[in-house]
Amino acid sequence: MAGDEIPGARLRLLRPLDPTRDHFRGRPGEDSVEVVGYQDFLCPYCRRLRQVLKRLRERLGDRLVYVYRQFPNERANPGADLAARASEAAALQGRFFEMHDRLFDHQPPIGRDDLVDFARTIGIDVAGFVRDLDGDQTRARVDEDLADGRRNGVTATPTLFIDGIRYDGAWDFDSLLEALERPIAARVHRTARVFASLPTSTGLVLLGTALLALVCANTPLAPTYQRFMNTQVGVGPSGSALLLTVREWFSEGLLAVFFLLVGLEIRREMTGGALASWRAALLPILAAAGGVVAPALVYLLFNRGPASRGWSIPTATDVAFTLALLAVLGSKVPVGLRVFVAAFAVVDDILSVFTLAIFYPRSFAPSYTGAVIGSLLVLVAFNRARVYAIWPYVVAGVTLWLSLHAVGIDAALAGVLLAMCLPSRPSPAAAPLLAQAATALAALEHAERQAKTEGRHHPNLEGEPVWEWAARNLSAASERLLSPAERVERAVSPWSAFVILPLFAFSATGVGLTFELSSHDAGSIFAGTVAGLVIGKPLGILLASGLAIGAGLALPPAGVARRQFVAAACLGGVSDTLALVMADRAFSPTDAGVAKLAVFTGSLIAGALGTILLLPRAVAATPTRS
To answer: What is the CATH number of the domain that holds 297?
Structure first.
């Protein structure tokens, strides 16, 4: 059933359909719907799905175009590769689907003698079939489909693509029929999934909301925009409500959810990713530290006195925009560089959160420190007691957020701390879960057959006890595949990318461009911020990395050339929206406006430099040593 697993499964069909190469059942037309199936002739699940596809073809007629692509799994289904080659040998004589039907109709095992009988039955040249069965052409064709499937994220059979978009829904007749008939809701859902899967989608949404905020802040809409952002919203009983402006709710409240995801990403990298080995982990950690210290020092070269409070503004790197730029460049960026940048950006995010919490507290009320410590101890106790329900962590996390806010530390830090306490589980053994799910479904199938023998042709089992029992067991088996931390990450990630971060960007980037450059510190603030992002940020990353690698403390990212590493360091100067919060905390509104414009300017220059350095195709594969 399962194929070789690869990371980063893709939602869109990478290799387009080719009538001269692919196996089509049906003719594409304006009103047709195309189903591409990566399948294995001996896979029991493909055999069951075939019956559903036959019913769909009876229902939709010529509108359904079915395309078969090979994905035999010889380890799970011995003889699958031979069956795949047999279908391709028949295809060389124009009889692919005749062999396709014979293979699916015959119960395994299927031997070589069976294949010869099939060839004789469907009326093709048996001698030519036997010759082609072991020929290089059929082997190459099956291998090509296998390679295509793996590149497309296919890890198991059957895997379906409907109109070029991977279908991950249920395989029953009604679910597939709804997907194929393409009602408006299904189209919107598929389009949204594809857009969300694009590596640049988060960056595009952030950019769009940032530009919208700039438009609102610099047009006649500005009074309405500012009035809305400064509207106070209270939560809690009258007289003791937690009262914050809309802007503060976005920056301190919603942003805690984003940092929950950041914390979960750090945990994942520490347990099984780029940070699992201490030597591998040390490079992005030291690079992130250098990427904070150097731009701060460069900024301070330009600024003394009150203006020095803005030292942290050029230190934050935007994870979404930086990774989106790397993704747009595609194959020009080696995998090792992507892993390094992702790990570096995660550490950089945490440093930015601590910078906000420690150096820019709103006010400090130490009397609430006990509540903070108590909330953390409760979260740790839940983790140690292996409490896997989510709601206790939500209650304790909200209490932690309120406590941090009361102390005067940026409450967004609660997201990171909560992430560190969410429990994880060892990966479950597949066999018991498979047995549980199979037992539940077999019970439903038996009940359905029993009802039909009693004369009920369209049995409704939803009211039967077996239905509820099966549903509970299937849900339990499904939930066990993911730990509580993973379930939270999956549930929150889309909201963070397409709701929380855009709302935060909309509130933070609404900067009026009619600011006062005549103030005493305006010029130095602007120059220091731009220089910190464009010069200080890459310089700090490169110096810290070079020293760590040269001293043998850290390992360079595999397969990354020096020019590519320098480009990634430049992309580190694409600043985070947290820099805009730091500007608000450090300065008066006048100087904060200057600093925010400098953040935009420096980020644009840094992004352009990094992209230009990555554009050349031919780059010497020299290990990073400096």
So the answer is: 1.20.1530.10
Q: Which CATH number covers residue 84? A: 3.40.30.10
According to DSSP, the β-strands at 33-39 and 64-70 are parallel
Domain boundary among 480, 495, 521: 480
Domain range holding 189?
Answer: 23-197
Same domain, 437 and 354: no
Say if residue 186 is exposed, middle or buried (CB neighbours under 10 Å; 0-12, 13-18, 19+): middle
In the chain, the amino acid numbered 408 is G
- Identify the H or E element spanning 543: helix 537-550
**60 belongs to a structural domain:** yes
Number of Cβ atoms within 10 Å of the Cβ of 384? 10
pLDDT tens digit sequence for 468-512? 888 888 888 888 887 778 888 888 877 877 888 888 888 877 766
Assess whether pLDDT exceeds 80 at residue 72: yes
**563 shares its domain with 546:** yes
Residues with Cβ within 8 Å of 241's Cβ and at least 6 positions away in sequence, in order, are: 234, 235
H or E, element range at 68: strand 64-70
Is-contact 604 524, C-beta < 8 A? no
Q: What stretch of H or E contains 527?
A: helix 522-531
C-beta of residue 3 within 8 angstroms of C-beta of residue 149: yes
122-126, long-range: CB within 8 Å, 24+ apart, which pairs? 122/90, 122/95, 122/98, 123/95, 124/90, 124/93, 124/95, 125/93
Give the pairing of strands 33-39 and 232-235.
unpaired
pLDDT tens column, 375-421: 999 999 998 888 888 889 999 999 999 888 888 777 777 888 898 88
